[in-house]
Specification:
Chain A is an alpha/beta fold. In chain A, 35% of the residues lie in helices and 24% in strands. Classes of the chains: A alpha/beta (327), B mainly alpha (326). Chain B: It holds the Pfam family BPD_transp_1.
Chain lengths: 327, 326
């Protein structure tokens, strides 16, 4: 396994109390594999990724338990300097909004070149040449001229391509993309996603795709992990999950996608709000919003049951859910 | 969307401008793909940035130009006072006490019979030296301490913030009277040292705040995610984006330090005679305001213009650096 997260716990200490953002997340990505992590805002998907990258703000954040095994080493036991060397070179991250993720006062060429200067000790001139190559690699027209331009002089799609180029500069084994297309126009989203998928195939890297867009996931991902209240509630190969979700939350998400054959009807929405992370409901965190909730859900926290060898669901009633709702 | 590179040949072929072709062709060879950003203007190679935008604004601002002119003149005068004033500011003739303007003394003479014009010109050196050095010291010390506290946070940040609170509680003039009255050295250094001691918390607070703001930007997290070290993040990604407020406050503070030097010298704890300072001259001339107002007027006027020039320059720079005012 390239990356294995085991029973990760992260909490944030704030003035109002302790917010438990991640409560025992486990997932794994192999090389060449794409894992989509799906969930609403505040489900802990980005925090998990930040913990993996080692860029969690501490304080207020704190990793209170678990292991992050990367190529067999537990990252949480490494010194900061060793982790810094891994970041960028062996694992990299693509951010949501490239305009704010690129430094406004440094030209894109210098920012791309910085990767080679920091990790490879290249001269500025060589780094600049590599920056142009990278920009051509992500299909930026006129790369040789535009290498001196500043981020705000590029369109949104172009900026995200530069962000991708930066993340892939040193051909890392693992890339985490945190909602890479959310800030883009729908027309550009597909282009950027295709580029990312193409480069991933070429470099055979492991990709963690964090998103709340089920549409993006279907084409690209191999596996899906659905998160709710800092926990993985369902983990499955992408086809199986779309065919028959084994958790009522996943079912709710799939039902809330607008569909052409239901034109004119009211769009389904999961009732209620995501839980307050300072006060997560006892038992199954989803029970207050769950149409299938029984008494046992209010008291007993469901483990991740093995639905099949490649599939897990954290629902007491995964069988009922899998074989259709009993309304 | 500019996904296609701009192709000069095709563009010209389509224009069919006939006689204008030569000109168009020669221009076209130098054309490069136009920048594509939302603000995409200007040729490639002259990227628009906060600083170039600010400079463009400032060049068109008459207040800035006037203040800059006054300041350039002041710096020139403090470097080479003898270029515009003959004689020594310390050559005084009691026989000419409180005389009006005469040949070689367009501002007249003060109570000791010293040439007011010469003394005013030489006084600029003290003011500019104290103002510039105090501002430099305050900016360096304040930025480093405040910046580090803002970046690393935690215990050191808390300690530093409380220390700045303590310094803010010290009244400047009273503090100067107490601290400087025990100093015997008659140079600018104790005055500058005092100003740095009391002035750094102001800059440190600004620097801390703007580093904290800059630190939260995604590009800082992105730089960290790509393996940049703390030093690199601070110097390359945070400092250039956090320095603008410090520059503004420092420029305005420069004016106030010049005024403070004059105040301390007036009170007799800053520079003392035979040093030459506008504060000393104002102090010496104030008892004779009715008999010889000119001896008070000129150093006071010079002080007021100087302080105003720096403060208004700082204002202009602040306006130019604030994108929201554009």
């Amino acid at each position: 396994m390239l990356l294995e997260v085991r029973d990760l716990h992260v909490e944030f200490r704030t003035r109002d109390g302790v917010a438990k953002a991640v409560n025992g997340v486990s997932y794994a990505v192999d090389e060449g594999e794409t894992l989509a992590v799906l969930g609403e805002s505040g489900s802990g998907k980005s925090v998990t990724a930040q913990a993996v990258m080692g860029i969690l703000d501490t304080p207020p954040g704190r990793i209170t338990g678990g292991q992050i095994l990367f190529e067999g080493r537990d990252l949480l036991r490494l010194k900061e300097e060793e982790r810094r060397r891994i970041r960028g070179a062996d694992m990299a991250m693509i951010f949501q909004d490239a305009l704010s993720a690129l430094n406004p006062v440094v030209s894109v060429g210098d920012q791309l070149g910085e990767m080679f200067v920091v990790h490879r000790g290249m001269s500025k001139k060589d780094a600049r040449a590599r920056a142009v190559e990278l920009m051509e690699r992500v299909r930026i027209p006129g790369a040789a001229q535009r290498v001196r331009d500043y981020p705000h002089q590029f369109s949104g799609g172009m900026r995200q391509r530069i962000m991708i180029a930066m993340a892939l500069a040193l051909e890392p084994a693992l890339v985490i993309a945190d909602e890479p297309t959310t800030a883009l126009d729908v027309t550009v989203q597909a282009q950027v996603m295709d580029l990312l998928a193409e480069l991933q195939r070429e470099y055979r890297m492991g990709l963690i795709l964090i998103t709340h867009d089920l549409g993006v996931v279907a084409d690209v991902a191999d596996r899906i992990a659905v998160m709710y209240a800092g926990r993985i509630v369902e983990s499955a190969p992408v086809r199986d999950l779309y065919k028959a979700p084994a958790h009522p939350y996943t079912r709710g998400l799939l039902d809330s996608i607008p569909r052409l054959d239901q034109k004119g009807q009211e769009l389904y929405a999961i009732k209620g709000l995501p839980p307050n992370l300072m006060n997560i409901p006892p038992g199954c965190a989803f029970h207050p919003r769950c149409p299938m909730a029984q008494d046992v859900c209010r008291t007993d926290e469901p483990a991740l049951y093995a639905v099949s060898p490649a599939r897990g669901s954290a629902c007491h009633f995964w069988r009922e859910c899998l074989h259709g709702p009993e309304q | 969307m500019p996904e296609q590179p701009y192709e000069p040949e095709r563009a010209i072929a389509g224009t069919g401008m006939g006689g204008a072709m030569d000109l168009a062709a020669s221009e076209a060879t130098t054309l490069e793909p136009a920048p594509a950003g939302p603000l995409g203007t200007g040729p490639v190679g002259k990227p628009r940035s906060l600083w170039s935008d600010a400079w463009r604004d400032l060049r068109r601002n008459p207040v800035f130009l006037l203040c800059a002119l006054v300041i350039v003149f002041l710096v020139f005068v403090s470097l080479w006072p003898s270029a515009i004033a003959s004689g020594s500011p310390l050559t005084c003739d009691l026989a000419r006490s409180q005389d009006g303007p005469g040949p070689g003394a367009p501002f007249g003479y003060d109570g000791q019979g010293c040439n007011v014009y010469t003394r005013t010109v030489y006084g600029a050196r003290t003011s500019v030296t104290v103002g510039v050095l105090a501002t430099l010291g305050v900016s360096v010390l304040g930025s480093v301490l405040g910046g580090l506290a803002g970046y690393f946070g935690g215990v050191w940040d808390a300690i530093l913030s409380r220390i700045t609170d303590i310094f803010f509680a010290i009244p400047v003039v009273l503090g100067g009277l107490v601290l400087l009255s025990v100093v015997t050295s008659n140079t600018v250094w104790p005055v500058i040292g005092f100003m740095v001691l009391l002035g750094w918390p102001q800059i440190s607070r600004i620097a801390r705040g703007s580093v904290i703001t800059a630190k939260q930007h995604d590009y800082v997290q992105a730089a960290r995610a790509l393996g940049a070290s703390d030093t690199r993040i601070l110097l390359r990604h945070i400092a250039p984006n956090a320095v603008a407020p410090v520059i503004v406050v420092a420029t305005i503070a420069l004016g106030t330090y010049i005024a403070l030097e004059a105040t301390l010298s007036y009170l007799g704890v800053g520079l003392k005679p035979p040093s030459v300072s506008w504060g000393i001259d104002i102090s010496a001339a104030s008892p004779y305001i009715r008999n010889a107002p000119h001896a008070l007027l000129w150093p006071s006027g010079a002080l007021a213009v100087t302080v105003l020039a720096f403060i208004m320059l700082g204002d202009a720079v602040r306006d130019a650096l604030d994108p929201k005012l554009r």
